[in-house]
Amino acid sequence: MESITGLLTKIFGDGMSPMALLISGGLTMALIMSLVMAMCAIVFTWMERKVAGFLQSRYGPMRVGGFHGVLQPVADMLKILGKEDIIPDEADKALFMLSPFVIFIGSLMAWAAIPFAPGFIASNLDLGLFYIFAVSSAAPAGILMAGWASNNKWALYGAARGAAQMVSYEIPLALAAIPVVMATGSLNMNAIVDAQGGGVLNWYIVHDPFLFLAFCLYFIASIAEVNRGPFDMPETESELVAGYHTEYTGMRFAFFFLAEYANLFLVSCIATAVFLGGWHPIAGPVFLPGLVFLIKAVILVFLQMLVRWTLPRLRVDQLMHTCWKVMVPLTLLCVLGSGIWMMVSGELL
Amino acid sequence: MSQKLVANLKSAFGERLLGASSAHGDEVVVVGREDLLEVARHLRDRESCEMLLDVAGVDLSEHPSLGGSADRFEVNYLFRSLANRSRVRVKVRVEEGQDVPSLSGLYNSANWAERETWDLYGVPFRDHPDLRRILCHHEFEGHALRKDYPIEQGQFCTVPEKLIQDHDIERAAGRADSAAEELHPSDLLTVNIGPSHPATHGALRLECLLDGEIIVDAKAEIGYLHRCFEKEAEDHTWAQVMPYTDRLNYVSAMLNNVIYSHAVEKMLGVEVPPRARVVRVIVSELSRIIDHLVCVCANLVDIGALTNYWYFYNVRESIYYDVIEPLCGSRLTTNYSRIGGLAHDVFEGFEQAVERNLEKLATAITEVTGLIARNRIFLDRTVGVGPMTTAQALDWGFTGPCLRATGCDYDIRKDAPYLGYETYDFDIVVGTAGDTRDRIMCRVEEMTQSARIIRQALQRGLPTGPIVVDDPAISLPPKEQVYGSIEGVMNQFKLIMEGTKVPAGEAYGFGEGANGELGFFCVSDGSGQPYRMKVRPPCFPIFSAYPEMVKGLMIPDAVAILGSINIIAGELDR
After folding, report:
1. Quick check: B314 and A238 CB within 8 A?
2. Using one digit for the tens of pLDDT, what is the confidence trace for B58-92?
3. Residues B116 and B247 in one domain
């Protein structure tokens, strides 16, 4: 937020009280973050279609907007706005209407602690990483609400699967980031990124073998956390029709969609900040930090899309098996291993 | 071999065998209804007839030679012995209201086949465990295939049938009780998979009783796509049935055309010209490739590997647009074969188009097997899922890739070659475990073998000569004769208005469909129209096993198995 408040002070001079500065800066930041989220959905739905098309020997959208269908997401948005908002008669109406926003808010809140560039962070919390993992746990609640409120058996199955999956995969997700916290000695996102400055060799991904493993585990767990293939249990369109959002239409459905792509970008941003050096370029001085950060995050998003369109889907029990019997022990091993590594290399002492 | 079987039966049953005959290479014995069970047991245990292929009822009331006799109905049982390579048809004649002992205790495949006979003819089966209607709706009144049921009389039936009853739920809960945890009937959830569900690929319904994700009980309902094919066939000339066969297995319509004409030609005793035979082999194998492509890619979509779909579907579309559509004017409803030959000759550049598509196929197979063959997730999802032993599969009446996946090398193209398949060099693809992976991989490999057959046919070159037999009683005369000579007009008129006169009698013509043994049991009364046409769709017995296959598995497994057994609703419900 420092950059925004700095800008505001420059414009308005010293006439603003610190409180007004804080509020206006916060509002500006919230607006930017909401725009970033909306842009995520727009850019990534187009990108997903193009990546899928590229992998599947077809073109994807080609018509709307001239060049390679760039305006296709806009057309989709307009279409979805014009759809009838259907609420089933037997649904629990309050929960039904609320749940898309719960999921959406959960991921919106997490954006507050993502450092896009030096000083460009909505809230420079000391507990930044902890905060992000904490608030993004709202999503399972939203999914459960949606599935339960729909009063549809498929939706309920999707919700139960989704909640179980997300609660489980949060553990390896958070555990995989612990070695980084140990190495930095801080949960502050800015501190974590700052510790990785000065070229690719200082990024945490190459800090030690255990951290490299931790990054891989984080990447896998993050796919599961955002419910995308091969872990798209809550939707599984061939088994559960459409999973927890079977009964949703129009804007409410769009909010689920928005949240999915926002979460996709969110986990990629966390991985960028925590493992891939944040805004620090591969070599040389800090240069266009926001762009560097974005490029890294988008590459991770691309990788997630690549995985989604390549692999078959796991079965629901295999998914749980993978989490509890493979990923959790491995992440614990990473914590232990990098702890020993740091002790031996003398970083911790 | 079949004659030896009948001789054995004669010596074992003597006078109790009411008759034995042989026509068109089919061996037929007639037994009394009280002896049926014993004969069937003898056939199964002594003559190693492992398979009951089908049960076909016939209403004899309007039959020129048998009509008016005391026994109105005839029930035909089609037995098949793999070990002895023999087939026999056992007939039982019953009066209206008389029941026939059910063979469902001996053969699992008898269960649904007898239900169908009950549904369409009203012949009751004694001791049948579940004698309900199967193709017609449960509210339907009368029996549709009886000769006195008017073909135009439709009925409106609207009330859905509850498949899983309360006592099923209680029984299932009781069964689960014996396990570690206590289960109350209200812990179980009934869920309908289908008739409109993304994984059913057609209108099927499976009502499942679920304990969490696990299917503790399942019952299937079919008939959503019942179009009265068999009743319609009785109202059309033999040649007019051809377009209807397109709609049986709409994924591989060519194969249905070819096997149907093969069945009728068997009754007519005509030999198809060499050029037509080779073209038939090529289009049949192309059709088989298309069917396998669609089955495998849809199966992979069901287990979440969406990308493979395009790799296979592109080839399928390419074959359709490059070969099938130029050949017969449409992609799915081909209507290309004719009794005695083909509708018209192949187009210019046919061989090159086929060759081009075979190359595309090889690339696609490499790509897809590269993505799945050693993919850990794919193997976890398919290995050991829905396994079948050969004995079980035969008992259920499995044929085709689903049977071969269990390790049984039964392929009609080798076993009882037709269209000159014996002259082609190809391998029967077999699996080992009969699970979902084997079924998928068998299909993938069978495509390579089909491509081999097509390549051999192309290398030899298409024989020159006519594409249809030169017999004015069977094939339509060339157009210049129709317009230029009185004889041509007459022949055309007679064939169109009255149809090909198929000599009175009956025969079971069969061939290797993409999904298994596709058979047409035809009865002719000597007129231009079939007296009775019974289709033996390969899906029907396979799907009857499906509810048993999924018990104890999870919903994702049920979806994976359903894809791998390739149920085509058009053929299942006819």
Report:
1. no
2. 888 888 777 667 788 888 998 888 888 888 888 88
3. no
- Which tokens sit at B365? 């197979």
Residue B225 has pLDDT above 80, yes or no: yes
Hey, which residues does B80 pair with through a beta bridge? Answer: B51, B87
Let me know if residue B277 belongs to a domain. yes
Residue A53 lies in a domain: no
Co-location of B306 and B423 in the same domain: yes
How far is the CA of B81 from the CAs of B19, B50, B234, in angstroms?
A: 21, 6, 30
**Candidates A57, A239, A305, A314, partner chain B, best to mutate (most B CBs within 10 A):** A239
* Residue numbers of the domain that contains A326: 90-345
Shared-domain flag, residues B112 and B256: no
CATH number at residue B283: 1.10.645.10
Instruction: For residue A79, tell me if it sits in a domain.
Output: no
Mutate to test the interface with A, among B377, B382, B561 (most CBs of A within 10 A): B377
Closest Cα of chain B to A159: distance in Å? 13
Q: What is residue B448's predicted lDDT score, i.e. its pLDDT?
A: 92
Contact A237 B198 (CB under 8 A): yes
Q: Taking the model in full, what pTM does it have?
A: 0.87
Distance from CA of B306 to the nearest CA of A (A): 7
What residues of chain B, 174 to 203, have a C-beta less than 8 Å from chain A? 189, 191, 197-199
- Residue B136 near residue B161 (C-beta atoms within 8 A): no
CA distance B198 to chain A (A): 5
| Residues B377, A314: C-beta atoms closer than 8 Å | yes
Q: Tell me, what's the pLDDT at A332?
A: 92
B545-566: string of b/e by CB count within 10 Å (b at 16+)?
bbbebbeebbbbbbbbbbbbbb
Contact criterion met (CB < 8 Å) for A316 and B554:
yes
| Residue A82 counted as domain residue | no
Q: What is the pLDDT of residues B137-179, one digit of tens each?
A: 888 888 888 888 888 888 888 888 888 877 777 777 766 555 5
Chain A interface includes B378 (CB < 8 A): yes
Total domains in the fold of chain A: 1
B96-122 average pLDDT score: 88
Q: Give B511-525 pLDDT, tens digit per residue.
A: 888 888 899 998 888
Q: What angle do CA B524, B506, B58 make, to 5 degrees?
A: 75
A330 band by pLDDT with thresholds 50, 70 and 90: very high
User: What average pLDDT score do residues B9-23 get?
Assistant: 78
- Pick the range with the lowest mean pLDDT from A196-205, B212-221, B492-501: A196-205
Contact state of B213 with A57 under an 8 Å Cβ cutoff: no
Residue A30 lies in a domain: no
Residue of chain B nearest A59, judged by CA positions: B310
The answer to whether the CB atoms of A239 and B555 lie below 8 A apart is yes
Question: How far does the CA of residue A125 sit from the closest CA of chain B (Å)?
Answer: 40
State the Cα–Cα distance between residues A19 and A8, nearest whole angstrom.
13
Dihedral sign computed on CA atoms, order A9, A14, A16, A17: positive
| C-beta atoms surrounding A53 within 10 Å | 18
Question: Above 70 in pLDDT, residue A71?
Answer: yes
Output the domain CATH number for residue B77: 3.30.460.80
Please tell me the number of Cα atoms within 13 Å of B237 on its side-chain side.
15
Q: What is the mean pLDDT of residues B364-391?
A: 89
Domain that holds residue B48: 2-126
Residues B121 and B246 in one domain: no
Across A18-32, average pLDDT: 78
Residue A30: CB atoms within 10 Å: 14
DSSP per-residue string spanning B274-310: HHHHHHHHHHHHHHHHHHHHHHHHHHHHHTT-THHHH
Say whether pLDDT at B43 is over 60.
yes
Flag whether pLDDT at B395 surpasses 70: yes
Interface residue of A54, A220, A308, A313 to substitute, partner B, most B CBs within 10 Å: A313
Q: Quote the pLDDT of residue A1.
A: 61
Put simply, whether B214 touches A (Cβ < 8 Å) is no
Q: State the total domains in chain B.
A: 2
